[in-house]
Fold:
Amino acid sequence: MKNFFYCLIFANLIISCSTNPYKKSEKVYDEKLKSLQETISSKEPVTLPVVNSFKITIDTLYSARLLTIKDSISKMSLTILKNGVNTEWIGTVNFNLRKPNFVIIHHTAQDSVQQTIKTFTQPHSQVSSHYVIGEDGRVVQMLNDYLRAWHAGNGSWGKNTDINSTSIGIELDNNGIEPFSELQINSLLALLTKLKKDYNIPTQNIIGHSDIAPTRKVDPSVLFPWQTLAEKGFGVWPDEILETAPITFNVEQGLRVIGYDTKNLVAAIAAFKLHFIQNEVNSILDENTINTIYSIYKKQ
Structure:
């Protein structure tokens, strides 16, 4: 019996000292994580079609925040749950970075690209975007596409109530009362071409700030060429000849299917018309408005 006891202790020692069975997968995990860290750390300019790349100096505040994010995703320590159980860490080898699924277009309501960049590089502003496009077609990238910018604020689209976590924000240098320049829209189209291809973003998921926040926002303005974007494959547009909506068509339900928050139906109708019926931006629900809503509803 005594010999059996010693054998049992010896066997336990061997097991406790044995090689980690997950050592190989942990190595793959570490290598893949390092590669992803390099991806989100990249600040290399990207050349867009017919658009020059501009490189800006990244300051220490950006670098410090990026380091915090990298440290966070690298964390492999144990966690004590409320029931006293400790979590274990065994790294999987099957993972990648989350990809954006929406593009949200804004206008800056400021006077210049320089002013917007200054706003986005001040910690107290608490606002940012992935890209800023100048009136002259200049494209400035301010955050890696995989990281979460603070551009959407409180808003929703369909059941998605955290737009910042699933979207890329694009700010157009425009004060909201002037037309968008041809150079600026051409650069936007070039950028959207790249983003849609890179992340397989659905056509109908290229929308405006006013679409996701109808009670708060009116950007991009009524002068924004949504029809031009839709003709190029970025967003949807009503049929040229509108089909009459069925008598049973529920407008509020139709707007919800499209994506609009209809808790304030008046605001939702106005936001829809700002995007799709730009010659009469109001909350009047006439026959043309109903048929237009039905046309977009069918494209979802």
Remarks:
- The two ends are 75 Å apart (CA to CA).
